[in-house]
Design a protein that fits this description.
- The protein starts with a strand and ends with a strand.
- The strands form 2 sheets. Strands 1-8-2-3-7-4-6-5-9-10-11 form an 11-stranded mixed β-sheet, sandwiched between helices. Strands 14-13-15-12-16 form a 5-stranded parallel β-sheet, with helices on both faces.
- The chain is of the alpha/beta class and 350 residues long.
- The protein has 10 helices and 16 strands.
- The protein is globular, with a radius of gyration of 20 Å.
- The structure holds threonylcarbamoyladenylate and magnesium ion.
């Protein structure tokens, strides 16, 4: 399959390209598109055979449901059994934006889109290209992150090309995404909303709107056979770079010392090493391929660069990645959730 790559200026959208994308989607084929979080791999959410193609293109297990993307609030009602009051409040505050809500689904949403669950995940992305594409398609769009299953989510159209070239009909290149990690997922089917996946919209931002919010315990630590996270995708090894990745946590001076020592050991043995640090510490590392994730003063820069750096180290085929931890104030929970998974929970306390 020939994959068409089209650059789109989000401030001056070429609607003829959007029409083309809409037509491709209505035909049951796939179009990758930018959102404010990561790139999505879109198909018609109401067409079971279209969502089946997503699973095939990603190599994704079929029990891992897709998020349905809408561009207007009136698209919600035909998809869900009820819209609880707390969901309404959250939608009002955060849509369009990086918040996915879980509702009880109507039969209009095929089982193939929800992995057989009787609930459906829905979000309205805050990206002009995504919204224009969904408008043009005139159907809700099922879209997981546009990476091969198990790889870091794509934050640029080039990342999508790397994973999906030849597998999908079209990629809309709207430039690098902003946030860089996937949306917060909140289940609003129960009395107390529950976070199933941490993201940019954090617990206290949610609590300011709806009061008490719970966190699915299963997402806080390493998964074993006995944990059953409520978002099925959270149980898979995700966001994983190819290298063996360890993080170092503790006093920053100790962290720098430990990483330098370990990097030297590996390099002396003939291995290649990548180091993930911050702008503040970059000059302190003497060995290996040192990449800064950005300044600790700007949390968004950190989440924005995270997957790109993991992909860069994949491209460079380093044997080991050694990284600092990033428990920053607002976004730290979401950032560390991704980093811990990428590192397979290998953390050395120093
Ligand atoms: O930011 C995002 O959410 C991106 C962009 C493209 O919108 N999408 C994304 O999709 O991250 P994906 O497929 O990579 O992750 C979807 C997550 C999975 O962990 C899945 O298990 C969970 O959402 N999910 C989907 N439907 C669900 C449901 N009905 N109940 C619980 N979890 C659900
Ligand atoms: Mg994903």
């Amino acid at each position: 399959m020939n994959t068409i790559l089209k650059k789109i200026d989000k401030d001056n959208i070429d609607y003829s390209v959007m029409e083309m994308a809409g037509e491709i989607l209505r035909r049951g084929e796939m179009v990758a598109f930018p959102t404010e979080t990561v790139y999505g791999l879109g198909a018609n959410a109401l067409d079971e055979s279209a969502s089946a193609k997503i699973y095939e293109a990603k190599g994704r297990p079929s029990d891992n449901p897709l998020i349905v993307h809408i561009s207007k609030e009136e698209q919600l009602e035909p998809l869900v059994k009820e819209i609880p009051e707390k969901a309404r409040l959250l939608m009002e505050k955060f849509w369009p934006g990086p918040l996915t809500l879980i509702f009880k689904k109507k039969d209009t949403v095929p089982d193939g889109t929800t992995g057989g669950l009787d609930t459906v995940a829905i979000r309205m992305p805050d990206n002009a290209v995504a919204l224009a594409m969904i408008d043009a398609a005139k159907v809700p769009i099922a879209a997981p992150s546009a990476n091969t299953s198990g790889r870091p989510s794509p934050t640029t159209a080039n990342h999508v090309m790397d994973d999906m070239n030849g597998r999908i009909s079209m990629i809309l290149d709207g430039g690098a995404v902003g946030i860089g990690i996937e949306s917060t997922i909140v289940d609003v089917t129960g009395e107390i909303p529950m976070i199933l996946r941490p993201g940019y919209i954090n617990k206290s931002m949610l609590e300011n709107v709806v009061g008490e919010v719970a966190i699915d315990k299963a997402i806080l630590g390493p998964m074993d056979e006995n944990s059953h996270p409520k978002a099925p995708g959270m149980k898979y090894k995700h966001y994983a770079p190819k290298a063996d990745f360890t993080m170092y946590d503790g006093d920053i001076e100790n962290v720098i010392k430990a990483i330098n020592k370990r990097a030297k050991d590996y390099i002396d043995k003939g291995y290649t090493v990548g180091i993930i640090c911050s702008d503040e510490t970059r000059e302190r590392y003497q060995y290996g391929d040192v990449e800064s994730i950005g300044t600790r003063q700007n949390e968004i820069t950190i989440s924005h660069n995270l997957y790109r750096i993991l992909r860069d180290f994949d491209d460079k085929e380093v044997d080991y990645i050694l990284g600092e931890t990033f428990n920053t104030k607002e976004l730290g929970g979401a950032i560390m959730n991704r980093l811990l998974k990428a590192a397979g929970y290998q953390v050395e306390n120093v």
